[in-house]
Design a protein that fits this description.
The complex is a heterodimer.
Chain A (H helix, E strand, L loop, with lengths): L7 H6 L2 H5 L17 E6 L14 H7 L7 E3 L7 E3 L2 E6 L5 E6 L13 H15 L3 H4 L3 E8 L2 E6 L5 H11 L5 H4 L19 E7 L3 E6 L13 E6 L5 H7 L5 E2 L6 H7 L5 E4 L7 E8 L9 H10 L2 H8 L5 E2 L23 H10 L11 E7 L4 H15 L3 E5 L4 H10 L5 E4 L2 E2 L3 H4 L23 H11 L4 H18 L2 E7 L3 E4 L2 E2 L16 E2 L2
Parallel strand pairs in A: 1-10, 15-16, 15-17
Antiparallel strand pairs in A: 2-3, 4-5, 5-7, 6-7, 8-9, 9-10, 11-20, 12-20, 13-17, 13-18, 13-19, 14-19, 21-22
Helix pairs in contact in A: 10-12, 16-17
Chain B lengths: L1 H31 L4 H9 L3 H10 L6 H13 L13 H36 L4 H15 L2 H15 L17 H39 L2 H8 L4 H38 L5 H10 L3 H29 L5 H5 L1
Helix pairs in contact in B: 1-12, 5-6, 5-8, 5-10, 6-8, 7-8, 7-10, 8-10, 10-11, 10-12, 11-12
Classes of the chains: A alpha+beta, B mainly alpha.
Amino acid sequence: MSEITISRRTVLAGSALLLGSTALPTIGWAQSPKKGGRLVVAADSEPRNLNPAIVASNGVFFISSKIVEPLAEASFEGKDGLDPRLATSWEGAADGLSVTFKLREGVKWHDGKPFTSADVAFSALQIWKPLQNLGRTVFKDLEAVDTPDELTAVFKFAKPTPFQLIRNALPALSSVVPKHVYETGKIEENPANNAPVGTGPFKFAEHKSGEYYRLEKNADYWGKDQPYLDEIIYQVLPDRTSAASALEAEEIQLAAFSAVPLADLDRISKVPGLKVITKGYEGLTYQLVVEINHRRKELADLKVRQAIAHAIDKDFVVKTVFLGYAATATGPVPKNDPQFYTADVPTYTFDVAKANALLDEAGYSRGDDGKRFSLKLLPAPYFNETKQFGDYLRQALAAIGIDAQLVNNDSAAHIKAVYTDHAFDLAVGPPVFRGDPAISTTILVQSGIPDGVPFSNQGGYKNDELDALIAKASETLDPAARTELYKEFQKKVAADLPLINVAEWSFISVARDTVGNVANNPRWAVSNWADTWLEA
Amino acid sequence: MTRALLLLRRRLVGSVFVLLIVVIGTFLLLEAAPGDAVDAYIASTGGDAGMIELLRHRWGLDQSALTRLANYLWALLHLDLGQSVTFSRPIRDVILERLPNTLLLMGSATALSFGLGSALGIYAGARPGSFRDRFLSIGSLALYAVPGFWLGLVMIIIFAVDLRWFPIGGIESIASGKTGLDRAADIARHLVLPVRALGFIYLALYLRMMRAGMAEVWRQDFVLAARAKGLSRRRIVLAHVARNALLPLVTMLGLQSAQMLGGSVVIESVFSVPGLGRLAQEAVAARDTPLLLGIILVSAVLVIVINLLVDIVYAFLDPRVGASEAGA
């Protein structure tokens, strides 16, 4: 089995584990998978739309990635970090104007109709490009998809588009849905959005709102002898503490996406029959970021931003907020990214004296009450850890004479306050790094983004040099040159601090040790689970 | 009989106004909350400006609040609760799917707290000041002071995780294919813990009310007369003291129904029961205004109906009640 079972102490001792894990090969343990069985997993939410071609988000993938497949999936060993799924090969033209996909033969949709290049063309042009949350950016220049034969799809771009970006986008952005199901009526209102039809190892069986989703084995799946499981049940457990209890009571066998709170992991790792797994999320890295509103005159001053960066003890945050299940960050690309990360950036050591000196230099001396100025601090409510870091940051800022007032909102109110109303000075956000800075990272610092776009630069930051760099990288075709540009980008962001990257974390799975082949790819929780099996 | 009918008529007219106030009040409250359904939705997906505009238009959120309220009320007049934004299904269907679970949970919990509470109250009140009286009063107060979610969690740890007597949550076994009596037994097994958690909290209220009522009745002249007549203590307690003390409890039953609905929000989350309370919580988080309005409306109707029933029962139990209405 490939899992690494660990205790909190070992993580603290070797915090490099999470980072190094991308490079770790799957550790084989000769035990043949068994067929059959029902895997019950915890689900904490019920997405309103289950179509991953429209909504490319982890909440949707968690369930629908077993039903609807992408062209390629992330892999620890595969070339360029990819494993073929519906496409068997992909090749970019030298001019960056086309990408040719060879498709898998003999694949059938769950309703029995054959899968062809027409489905890929339809998904790309009618869904990914106009409707998908991420595809609208990445595929914006996609002009046509030629289908010379049933198993070849040629993507044609109006402007040169880096093949490296398309390749990196494949796992999350390329879910293929059947043309014959979606071609009549409005795509957004198609009933298949809530009962997906795909080519994956499992078929959608039923959803009882507030109770569970049930997926059934697809007996006609193209993968040899796959899938192993007969059924997957997603049991809806809305309460944060239920997943741990359900695992202990043996009512569920797996809780992914840190459904078991970090604080419970130490205890749960000692329960016989349960294992805590930190692998399998390397391709889904979340970043803990301090978003800055540069409209505030104090924060527009680089010295003040540097002072704030020096006031944050990143090691303390990793140890205390994340209980060791995270890594400190140096810049806008996470350390565990194999392609783009560079450590060669300006760093900010934890140094309160230096932070105070910088603030004095900037001309914000302490008043009679010891305070320099006041700020509004809005921690994002989506994770316990973002809220806890908000509490920490308030104290860290107090130490350098900045009085931060915490404003706690629920998701809808937070999104509105930060990204539409700009009613914040500092915010704590958890942006996601999706394998390529052009997918959802550069947007965090780029200028000229309309108001209201979430998880983007809404802090009024504008840096012509950085904007030019981002524009250049978006049209640089040579992967090596493009990677260099993004290294430059990391340096500039770390130097000018449009935002402050504090830490990087992934999720934790807890599973019964009867579950086999857990965490064997970098997006395991949102991959197809065709080879997952249960010991009887 | 006419007394009951008159009461019914008066109540129905009043109810319409109550419901209207509830609907408009809820709408305004949710309107005042920052962020709308699109904000809540993109919090989990992200998206660019064009997509956000598209969604606002499709979900009708680009209209003014007044237009939306007017549209809602107009549809309501035709008994149409509208379409849920989060579920993209008719709200009537979504609510009808969840309502039975909440009614089952609430009904069982009310029966438990009322039944056991008044029985223990009689037991305690039969001998005011005795050891058992003090023990029950203090014990029930302790239960009342415990937060509902905590009681639920402790029960889960003891009875579901450690002893494994009952399931940790849900309303029935998942995709078990059970039907008829088997299914009923399965649901009953799932309800044991949530009903106890919800019922135990309100038990104290009935117990203490019964006990206090009895303590007062004991001092009445007719009790002295009953004693003088040579009736057995048992008969005095049950037929005279307890019976007279029971009336306020019936009033309480009506008032409590609204509280019980509120309490079920917490209990439904802790025990993952797919009920109305959890639905309301999700509707607020998703800023699904029409869905929340639908839930509030159904809950308000529920509370009004229960109180009406209580009043009718009351009118039969105590001939003095409703006499003024009958005369008016």
